[in-house]
Design goal:
The structure is a single chain. The protein has a single domain, classed as Peptide deformylase (Peptide Deformylase). Helices cover about 25% and strands about 25% of the residues. It is globular and about 45 Å long. The protein starts with about 25 loop residues before the first helix and ends with a helix. By secondary structure, it is α+β, with helices and mostly antiparallel strands. The protein has a 5-stranded antiparallel β-sheet, sandwiched between helices. The protein has 3 helices and 7 strands, in the order αβββββββαα. The longest helix has 16 residues. Bound molecules: zinc ion. The site of zinc ion has 5 residues, from α2.
Length: about 170
Amino acid sequence: MRRPILRYGEPVLHTPAGPVAGITPEVDQLIDDMIETMHAAPGIGLAAPQVGEPLRVCVIDLSVGKRPSDLLVLVNPVVVELEGMQLYEEGCLSVPGIEASVVRPARLVVEAMDREGQLRRVAGEGLMARALQHELDHLDGRLFVDRLRPVYRKAIAHRIARLRRSGRW
Ligand code: ZN
């Protein structure tokens, strides 16, 4: 089932999410819903807080549904290695219409459970490294705009506040 994607300003997006204790039927359903919601958006990644669930689960699919083997489900992910630096334009389904350049590691290794509960290591560079860190940030209650310099962060916050006042957010 597709779920509504929450936007910047919803408290669940700005609060660290809690660990998943196990792959229960509810968590399994949540994962299905997240994959469907991500593909429909369309987007290359989605974290559980974006659909209102304060849990450490995210999904990534750089092919946006074209190659099933690209689909990654990460439960309780943790960064085990990061190196290098890249600067690239980024956006987020929870911050529609706003893009900005974000500094991120160039390479990243993450350890996480898959949806079968098996511990896996995922390594990524370039776009994959950015997607991984972007989604892991969501699990810590951090959006990409929070990584911008204060002057940009404030400008974006003001723009969103204006949109919200006029009922367009
Ligand atoms: Zn996002």
